[in-house]
């Protein structure tokens, strides 16, 4: 396969770009890198990172051939988009595809979501201003009340494609199958990982509709890393306990759980790209390493062990309990 259309001579590391695997992104016509970058970490939610560190991370990833970038106004309540906008300076616009979201904005569950047409239009324009771009390649939403407004954004040139995302894959499937507006992409997060494989049950349906399929958050927001999750992680104590056991075992074997988690994701057929939150050059290098080189014999043995002896203790590996907590706040 030749160079993708996002390749920019003089900017990219051509050898790295030729090494990257690209997949046809459903019916969009885009060629997306197998590894893509999420920018939820470009804010205070994942620690204290400077704009310069985020800029170095982004430039490292894009120059190496990563060409799909994801953000949202909910990440840091606008901070992630603002920081990403600063980091995008110096990167040719044609070198990347950019996706953001609408629908979820605030921390308070009572005002967390707003799917009204007015809010959706304002959100699109606000995101474009923060990001410093004229258009984004994809906009994601949770339910189909906002889809006609997103279709309007595509017609006005503010977006190129429309996608859906959310917790339950069943809800995404229902939205896709019932929507009267053409949907181009689907982003499912933490649902094709060492903890949960729910996305598998819907891949055939999504593929039959020629959707671009994004498998996001293979580290399950830090659960599947030796460092563990942030204090705010919404998972149940049972899930956190099992993951902590896996973390301790990996540490005892001097193996990084995050590497095992991403290798697992890269081996799963179906998704066109794996979206990973990265806010340091080290994380970019680490994810590129497992993408290109896989696991050594010891790491393979540790992966088999944690799957057979630790993660098998979980009957349920998702935290859709967060949805129930949100519903309880509704009148």
UniProtKB/TrEMBL annotation:
Q: Which PANTHER family match?
A: GH17980P-RELATED
The protein here is known as: NADP-dependent oxidoreductase domain-containing protein
Q: InterPro entries per the record?
A: AKR, LGALDH-like, NAD(P)_OxRdtase_dom_sf, NADP_OxRdtase_dom
Which residues are in the NADP-dependent oxidoreductase domain?
A: 35-299
- Give one Pfam family, short name only: Aldo_ket_red
| Gene Ontology CC | cytosol
- Kindly list the GO molecular function terms attached to this UniProt entry: L-galactose dehydrogenase activity
């Amino acid at each position: 396969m030749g160079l993708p259309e996002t390749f920019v001579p003089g900017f990219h590391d051509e050898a790295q770009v030729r090494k990257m695997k690209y997949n046809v992104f459903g019916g969009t016509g885009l060629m997306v890198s197998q590894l893509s970058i999420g920018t939820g970490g470009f804010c205070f939610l994942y620690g204290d990172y400077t704009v310069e560190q985020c800029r170095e991370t982004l430039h490292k990833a894009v120059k190496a051939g990563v060409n799909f970038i994801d953000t949202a106004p909910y990440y840091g309540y606008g901070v992630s988009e603002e920081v990403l906008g600063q980091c995008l300076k110096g990167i040719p616009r044609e070198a990347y595809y950019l996706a953001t979201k609408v629908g979820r904005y605030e921390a308070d569950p009572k005002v967390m979501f707003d799917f009204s047409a007015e809010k959706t239009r304002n959100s699109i324009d606000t995101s474009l201003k923060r990001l410093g771009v004229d258009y984004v390649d994809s906009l994601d939403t949770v339910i189909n009340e906002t889809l006609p407004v997103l279709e309007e954004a595509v017609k006005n040139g503010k977006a190129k494609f429309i996608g859906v995302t959310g917790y339950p894959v069943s809800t995404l499937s229902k939205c896709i199958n019932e929507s009267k507006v053409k949907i181009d992409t689907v982003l499912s997060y933490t649902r094709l990982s060492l903890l949960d494989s729910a996305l598998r049950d819907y891949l055939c349906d999504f593929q039959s509709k020629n959707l671009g399929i994004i498998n996001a958050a293979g580290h399950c927001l830090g659960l599947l890393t030796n460092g563990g999750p942030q204090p705010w992680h919404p998972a149940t104590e049972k899930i956190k306990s099992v993951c902590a056991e896996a973390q301790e075992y990996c540490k005892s074997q001097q193996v990084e759980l995050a590497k095992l988690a991403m290798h697992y994701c890269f081996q799963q057929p179906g998704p066109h790209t794996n979206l990973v939150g990265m806010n340091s050059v080290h994380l970019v290098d680490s994810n590129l390493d497992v993408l290109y080189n896989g696991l050594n014999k010891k790491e393979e043995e540790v992966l088999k062990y944690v799957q057979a002896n630790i993660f098998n203790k979980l009957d349920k590996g998702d935290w859709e309990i967060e949805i129930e907590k949100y519903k309880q706040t509704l009148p």
